[in-house]
């Protein structure tokens, strides 16, 4: 049971870092932002961002004009 809890905590921390990394990149990299909103899976395919399908879907619900305003 402890092993499963540790594995879940590690996955959650890794997942949070991946989401934070994608958000940072979306704000600072116009080309990545355009690729992400046209093909999120392809934009993250490099292995740099290990997102779950649910995380990717949540990021795709971000307001694109608001991201442009923030960037």
Describe the secondary-structure layout.
Layout: H1 2-28, H2 30-38, H3 40-43, H4 53-60, H5 64-70
Helix pairs in contact: 1-2
Helices and strands, in order, run as HHHHH
Rg, please? Answer: 14 Å
Helix content: over 70%
Distance between the termini: 43 Å
Question: So how many helices?
Answer: 5
Mean pLDDT: 78
Query: Strand content of the residues, in percent?
Result: under 5%
The SS-based structural class is mainly alpha
State the shape.
globular
Sheet with most strands = none
Total strands: 0
Oligomer: single chain
Low-confidence stretches: 5-10
Give an overview of the whole structure:
It is a single chain. The protein is mainly α and 71 residues long. Helix content is 77%, strand content 0%. The protein has five helices and no strands. The chain has helices spanning 2-28, 30-38, 40-43, 53-60, 64-70. Helix 1 crosses helix 2 (30-38). The model is unreliable at 5-10 (pLDDT under 50).
What descriptive keywords fit this protein?
71 residues, mainly alpha
Q: Care to give the gist of this entry?
A:
The chain is mainly alpha-helical and 71 residues long. The chain has 5 helices and no strands.
């Amino acid at each position: 049971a402890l092993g499963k809890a540790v594995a879940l905590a590690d996955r959650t921390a890794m997942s949070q870092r991946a989401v934070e990394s994608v958000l940072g990149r979306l704000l600072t990299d116009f080309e990545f932002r355009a690729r992400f909103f046209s093909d999120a899976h392809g934009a993250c395919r490099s292995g740099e961002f290990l997102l779950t399908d649910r995380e990717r879907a949540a990021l795709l619900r971000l307001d694109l004009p608001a991201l442009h305003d923030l960037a």
